Amino acid sequence: xxxxxxxxxxxxxxxxxxxxxxxxxxxxxxxxxxxxxxxxxxxxxxxxxxxxxxxxxxxxxxxxxxxxxxxxxxxxxxxxxxxxxxxxxxxxxxxxxxxxxxxxxxxxxxxxxxxxxxxxxxxxxxxxxxxxxxxxxxxxxxxxxxxxxxxxxxxxxxxxxxxxxxxxxxxxxxxxxxxxxxxxxxxxxxxxxxxxxxxxxxxxxxxxxxxxxxxxxxxxxxxxxxxxxxxxxxxxx
Length: 237
Prior knowledge:
The protein is an alpha+beta fold. It has 7 helices and 10 strands.
């Protein structure tokens, strides 16, 4: 019998997930829409990944001032970095002028951020350092006043820094939250640090990385990783 159809409103109702929340011996998996519906995916991005804290990177990715890592959270490009004082920072990866993407590399080392479109420059702490004109712009001298933002009385560079994102670190992980005012990371983690203390995560570092492109919803990958039923046949070792 085909699975019942659901609407986006159904995805926000607790009763939709009652069979999954039953005692484990009676529980069933999530509704099929959770793995194949574009509408469910959109709701999930808003309700899950746009709220609370999301693990985004390893601390070694941004271990020193100027180290930059870009990550995608709920479809939004986020810059992770450390400023000159070593403070961990996160920003939306968009210029404040025309929203051009500032950093296109996944990982790099920078002294500042500079927009490739209009050359606005930002410090590693997000401050707007300057808007055109810049030396080496190639603009003819007689046309330079057209591009000189310094003569605009209502333009204050202090008002146009990069848009910050809440960021924090625990053990060897960097977390970000897209919420305007999230609960403190420590409170969100609850008793997890105590439960995982024996693993000494803060002493672990990345020695290699592999990327897999899996043609499936992310939950299928996560569930398969946590499911041991297949081990005797697929991973007998």
